[in-house]
Amino acid sequence: MKVMRNTILIFVTLTILILGLNIWLSGSPWPKPARDSLQFNKEITVAAGETEKNIVTFNSRVQVDGRVKESVVVFGGEIIVSGEVGQSVVGIGSRVIIKSTAVINEDVVVLGGTLEKQPGCVVKGDTVFFPTGRKLTGELFKKGIFFPLGTIVLALKLISLFFGILLIIFVAGLFPRQVNLAASQIQIDFWPVLGTGAIALVLFLGLVAVSVVLMFILIGIPLFFVLLLLGLIIKIFGGTAFSYFFGQSFLEALGVQKMPHIIWTSIIGLVLTTFFGMIPIVGFLFTLVVAFIGWGVAIRTRFGTTDNWFKHQS
Q: How many Å separate Cα 3 from the centre of its chain?
């Protein structure tokens, strides 16, 4: 009964999350909390004595001399911290400078870009840094590292990555045990997970096709939307589990002994998965396999509440 309650909790929570995102993206009537910055191509400064809740920005320059209660997340651009950040500093393709007076209460994560930590700075969590050349980073945000991809496609990929990170923070933060169990099953039962996902995805697409046909007689309309919601929930949980598995495997291959928090490990995995998926031809095949694994592990582990849902109970 406890396992079933956990499954229902995950399902309901993800359903509410999806509906909430839909309302937010369509223009929510409720005002957003004050002092919570989401910016594009801006210069954001938190002056000494000022307090900001969160900063999430694309291709901007962020300078924190005061205090950010939660996290600073920047895609491209630059982060300079001389004040205090309550949680983590995350730069993806960014130049990050942590000055000697800075206090970061959790982690510093830099994926692509540069990191400079001055003597005297305080980072209470982990420091995760995967550098790339400055020229390569600049080219990524100008025209993409994979030149056959157009600028619009790259922008859509980065936007998808951004929302994927938000979903990972939510799912891995709220259900770390379930995500960890599901990720472990990918390694233990890789081929059964892959096969389950392939069969499940083919059956799902078949049901969607049937529901589309039935829409002409109205019966298929509710069925179509129920299937769409179910597919999104499976994709979100399965994608989070795979991202954690992939990020953990990558860090282990680099010889990292102490793993970062499950959220940051999952984000690393998501970023790597996204960029591998952008490689022409090979990326498509990789993305297809990732989809099979995500669906398979979500269904086989029943959203991380059991090691094998199909195992016969003795």
A: 25
pLDDT digits (tens, 9 = 90+) for 192-205: 999 999 999 999 99
Does the CA dihedral 110-111-115-119 come out positive or negative? positive
Distance of CA 269 to the CA centre of its chain: 8
* N-to-C CA span, the chain: 17
Residue 183 CB neighbour total at 10 angstroms: 28
Residue 252 CB-density burial (10 A; 0-12 exposed, 13-18 middle, 19+ buried): exposed
Largest pairwise CA distance in the chain: 70
Q: What is the pLDDT of residues 253-291, one digit of tens each?
A: 877 777 888 988 898 899 889 888 877 788 889 999 999
pTM of the model as a whole: 0.60
Q: Which H/E stretch holds residue 170?
A: helix 151-174
Contacts of 25 by beta carbon, 8 Å cutoff, 6+ apart: none
Residue 296 and residue 238: Cα distance in Å, rounded?
Answer: 8
Comparing CA positions, the residue from 296, 199, 182 lying closest to residue 248 is 182
22's tokens: 């839909």
What's the rounded Cα separation, in Å, for the pair 32 and 19?
17
3-state secondary structure of 38: strand
Higher pLDDT, 72 or 242: 242
